[in-house]
Amino acid sequence: MTGRLGDWEPAPAPADETVGAFARQVAQAAGDRAEAWAAVGQVLTMDEAAITALRDGGPSAAWRAGARWLGDDAGMFWADLITLDAFARGAGRRQPAADAASLGRDHAAIVAPALDVVAYVREVADLCRQEAAAWGAGDMAKGKALRVREREVIDAELVPVLPELGSRLAREAQVKVWQTLGRLVLAWLSVESGKDYQRAVLGDNGR
Q1: Alpha helices in 68-175, H assignment, sequence order
Q2: Helix (H, G, I), strand (E, B), or coil: what is residue 6?
Q3: How confident is the model at residue 1 (pLDDT cuts 50, 70, 90)?
Q4: pLDDT tens digit sequence for 89-124
Q5: What is the pTM of this model?
Q6: Whole-number Cα distances in Å, 127 to 43, 92, 124, 157
């Protein structure tokens, strides 16, 4: 790791950039983070809309956008995002009902018992949207306060649940897509919390 996990802002703006331009950049990063968290909540729900989104490549696009601010640390996402891209490209050869059945079995066995965590994932996504709006409006104090609140929810509600859930999906799921999603949930939690949960729970190779 390069030490940038949990670094929620882009690198400091060059001296010739205005404060407003920098705030817009931070607003964009917060908006991308919101969509990435929303994707986590969506795939953990794995309802009809989530299955459609997976088949269309929506979560992959959200995580790719969220990771683009991370520099070298973005590499923890790429292999698994390629797997999701392949799943989406092959959707035309599979019936939605077949995907729903295969994904539903692992969801019932592994995710459903921890489904209450989705409400907190969505809360973080909403806080990120509010943060993006605050930075976009030039209200830096509000933006920073919202970021603090995001971290509070992540540390109090997500860190106690998502590492074990992601680990079980990566190791115990019967469907490869769920294994991939488990690793991606761990990767995104690593980015947002500042601790490398992918390596901590899956080992040095993240598998």
Answers
A1: 75-89, 96-106, 117-136, 140-153, 162-172
A2: coil
A3: very low
A4: 999 999 999 999 999 999 999 999 999 999 999 999
A5: 0.88
A6: 19, 36, 5, 14
pLDDT recorded at residue 157: 98
Question: What does the block give as tokens for 182?
Answer: 């488990």
3-class secondary-structure state, position 73: helix
Question: Rounded distance, CA 203 to CA 194, Å?
Answer: 17
Q: Which amino acid is at 142?
A: K
The residue whose two tokens read 């919390």 is: 193
pLDDT in tens, 71-95: 777 788 899 999 999 999 999 999 9
Report the alpha-carbon angle 30-164-110, nearest 5.
105
Selection from 95, 77, 172, 158 nearest residue 124 by Cα: 158
Identity of the amino acid at 45: T
How far apart are the two ends of the chain, measured CA to CA in Å? 16
CA distances from 43 to 16, 28, 50, 91, 203 (A): 41, 23, 6, 16, 24
Q: Contact at 8 Å (CB) between 10 and 26? A: yes
